[in-house]
Write a structure and sequence with these properties.
The protein has four helices and no strands. The two termini are 14 Å apart.
């Protein structure tokens, strides 16, 4: 299991949080996010697929998450709320 440094964790959070707090839409920041997740050698096809993956973003209470919510996402949220991270397969 690979762990990231504190600097990498802060960069990961900043890349997502800062533009949203500055009023940018998810569609505006998506290309930067895709680049950070796919890496420099990803094909144009993969980049397009990733840009289409997130349909909508919003802030929700943990006990009032919108449907549909995949089982994998529900597991990750539950793990996070228990203070558990990096637990393998989705």
């Amino acid at each position: 299991m690979q762990h990231i440094s504190e600097e990498e964790r802060l960069e990961f959070l900043s890349l997502r949080r800062d533009p949203l707090l500055a009023g940018e839409s998810l569609q505006e920041i998506a290309p930067k996010l895709v680049d950070s997740l796919t890496g420099p050698d990803a094909s144009a096809e993969l980049r397009r697929a990733d840009l289409a993956e997130i349909e909508e973003a919003g802030w929700f209470a943990p006990d009032a998450l919108p449907a549909p919510l995949s089982l994998a996402t529900a597991r990750r949220i539950a793990e996070y709320r228990q203070g558990l991270t990096g637990l393998g397969a989705w």
